[in-house]
């Protein structure tokens, strides 16, 4: 099993696999300060809800180190300002704001220490967030593997692998676990227009791991589901509302509706940090709209005529009624989601 490490903080800089360049080129993008990190998140050098949470945390560390020599008051103010900028780099995935809030809580709790002590403490917290995400991925994979039948054909959408997390993956982590525990599974991976995370990233991870898979145009998935070719669908999430409505990559809702029509189990795999207990339902989730050129161009080559208008939402919301279960590091959460997610929020079994 090749552990793909897409995020590395060393010698006071943050290095990221540049996912815009994969699969043709494996190169690192260097972040010297929090503005580089903001760009990396916005331009999808790094993407994937858990991954941008980890990267956002390290962005705050870079900010603290760059403002180290300021007065304590200016230092705290500048770090908080940088954190706000990072937290707003992409609006839909809750993990980013979750990580930023966690880092700000640590800053607040240690604001009476010296600037350099605070830098050290923030770096340790960012490392904790990264380490915990990897552990979380492994737990999600183990629980998810329990619902993967031997010999199953699994459909997945977008990229939810090591590139989208601190390593191993969420939905793709379940697929890895099923493969490595000898379940003899095979995968259909949606290409996932327009940014092609499936074709460029998931396919790359599956090839690296020699997991039997076929890449398909997004519109093939409904036909495979209708024809009984898919045993189970497992996808990721960017934000799960308290009632279980889930925001994920555009195209997920369509898959869930067709899965429901043809009685194919449809699972979300996500860490608990992706559950937003403050958001009551999917209606309240902000859906990021991205640049028109993501649709009108591929690799910089224009494929649609000048002058055509574009609507490019990066996510859609799957209603909780379409979701068979939510695979988390604490087990699989089943309906009724409002009741069960509220119990999780309140720390009840
Ligand atoms: C475990 S990644 C979760 C989620 O993030 C991806 O979105 P993006 O590539 O725009 O960052 C996709 O929705 C994945 O399912």
Automatic annotation (TrEMBL):
Amino acids binding substrate: 47-49, 90, 197, 248-249
Origin superkingdom: Bacteria
Known EC number: 5.3.1.23
SUPFAM superfamilies on file: NagB/RpiA/CoA transferase-like (SSF100950)
Active site: 238 (proton donor)
Biological pathway: Amino-acid biosynthesis; L-methionine biosynthesis via salvage pathway; L-methionine from S-methyl-5-thio-alpha-D-ribose 1-phosphate: step 1/6
Protein keywords: Amino-acid biosynthesis, Isomerase, Methionine biosynthesis
Residues making up the signal peptide according to the UniProt record: none
Catalytic activity: 5-(methylsulfanyl)-alpha-D-ribose 1-phosphate = 5-(methylsulfanyl)-D-ribulose 1-phosphate
Site annotation Transition state stabilizer: residues: 158
Primary enzyme class: isomerase
MF terms in GO: S-methyl-5-thioribose-1-phosphate isomerase activity
BP GO annotations: L-methionine salvage from methylthioadenosine
Similarity comment: Belongs to the EIF-2B alpha/beta/delta subunits family. MtnA subfamily.
Record's function text: Catalyzes the interconversion of methylthioribose-1-phosphate (MTR-1-P) into methylthioribulose-1-phosphate (MTRu-1-P).
NCBIfam families reported in the protein's UniProt record: eIF-2B_rel, PRK05720.1, salvage_mtnA
Name the record gives this protein: Methylthioribose-1-phosphate isomerase
